[in-house]
Every structure is written in C-alpha cells, then in structure tokens.
Design a protein that fits this description.
Layout lengths: L1 E7 L4 E7 L9 H8 L2 H20 L4 E7 L4 E6 L3 H14 L3 H13 L1
Parallel strand pairs: 2-3
Antiparallel strand pairs: 1-2, 3-4
Helix pairs in contact: 2-3, 3-4
Length: 113
C-alpha cells in the first residue's frame, strides 16, 4: 500500500492518497487500520491536523476541513463541537511522546473552549 500525504500551504488542507500499489482497488480493513495507526499518520495528527485545529480555534471557525481524500474527492470536516475531543486525542498522543510543552498548550486550549 502506498500512502502519500500532501499539505497545501495556502489552504492548510491535508490531502491523503491511500491507494494500493499493486493496482488492486480493494483495500482490506487490516491495511486501512495499519495506515491509520502508523507513525506517519500519527505525525499528521499531532502536527498538521493540530496546527489546522489551532488556526480554526484562533479564527473562530465553526468547522474546518480535516482531510481531503484525493481519490474519492471527499472532504472530512470537523465541527466545532468535535474540537475538544480532537484536542484530548492529541493531548494523549503528546503525553505518550513526552512533548510536555505541547501538552501545556493543548490543556490551555481545552480550558478555553
């Protein structure tokens, strides 16, 4: 499986391309889980998605595009009511990675919501 991630700087949209290298259009559930729990996707969540979330909060946005799946031409939008849950998820990841400065910043954001 090939997984590519692109981040468009002007719009901050994260493009995901999860295509199968051998040309088989079917992706089994195990392959999808492997990609979505891997270190590269974790980095996308804790860095790029976190940055986009902070920007949405700072600008008072009610939603933002979390991911765009290029091959499906589909956007996954996060609503404001989901911001706190996402922050808690990123906080857990930051604690596991022992990124205590980021943890403090995330906790302040959670309290502000």
């Amino acid at each position: 499986m090939k997984d590519q991630i692109e981040r468009e700087e002007e719009t901050s949209i994260i493009y995901l391309d999860l295509t199968v290298e051998d040309g088989d259009e079917e992706m089994d559930e195990g392959s999808i889980i492997e990609v979505l729990t891997g270190p590269e996707f974790r980095y996308i969540i804790t860095e790029h998605l976190f940055t986009n979330l902070v920007e949405a909060i700072d600008k008072g946005k009610n939603s933002f595009i979390a991911f765009r799946l290029a091959q499906q031409d589909k956007d996954y939008v996060l609503e404001k009511k989901q911001y706190k849950n996402l922050l808690n998820t990123i906080l857990s990841m930051a604690e596991e990675d022992e990124e205590y400065t980021k943890c403090a910043a995330i906790k302040k954001l959670i309290e502000a919501l």
